[in-house]
Amino acid sequence: MSRPVLPPATGDDADRVRTRLRTNLVAWLTTVDRHGQPWTAPVWFLHRADGTLLVYSRPGSRRLRHLETNPRVSFALDVSDLGRNLVVGRGEARVAPEESGAAENPEFRDKYLERAAAMFGDLETYAADFTVPIVVVPQRIG
Hints:
single chain, 142 residues, alpha+beta, seven-stranded antiparallel beta sheet, 7 strands
């Protein structure tokens, strides 16, 4: 997989993208099936210091089947229902069994503890359901 390509290290656009990658709770991740049909779904994600995104998936999900045949993905971050101020990226994704689970990942825990409690009762329940780590290596974000 290629290394992440982020906007320039300075400037308003770079700051906007980095802020959104750090603070957005939901990304819209698009995978492509074996027939070339794109499928988009919301995911919780963690933007890591190495530039990759970490996502957890349910076993047997459509997204995992798609990644088996096509690792190319796109993702989008939006803060409103108006479609303004989008951050869009593309890259490659892979299942990453070497990654820790969601409940054992301190950064993921800090970011999603409250949301997981509201939606699943606690983070451990979420982590027991979303057990497959996926690493997305962005090739372009902007």
